[in-house]
(2Fe-2S)-binding protein
Amino acid sequence: MQITVTVNGDEHTADVEPRLLLVHFLRDKLGLTGTHWGCDTSNCGVCVVWLDGTPVKSCTVLAVMADGHTVRTVEGLADGAALDPVQEGFVRCHGLQCGFCTPGMMMTARWLLDHNPDPSEDEIREAISGQSCRCTGYENIVRSVRWAASRGTEVSAS
């Protein structure tokens, strides 16, 4: 099947098999490897992207379901060389850790802050509860999101 998907503002048309998952379309067809592939069962959350502005686990969405829609990946967070406050927060507050869960966490955190610019620690923990981090107890991730919330929507030049 031929699909056309707008990813991070750029329109892409490709021939895909009807069973191809969105995560594989992004990684294998478009070369956007920031979206990670973890469990294939939607348990880990490392594959979170936005589909028409809503976070989805791309391992449970077929690429053909994105035909005619807009997808935003972790590569679409930065504005050129300027990091999004969420990305900056993960760097400054050591939320990156091993990095495997980071893209999904960042996409979820950006969505949360777009809808709730000053979330409590409990609200942050609830927002990321659909994702697994095997490195820590999430302290640095929560701290990273709080740091980003304190910066609002300003974009960093670093």
The chain has a mean pLDDT of 92. Helices lie at 22-29, 85-92, 102-115, 121-127, 139-151. Strands lie at 2-7, 10-15, 48-51, 54-57, 70-72.
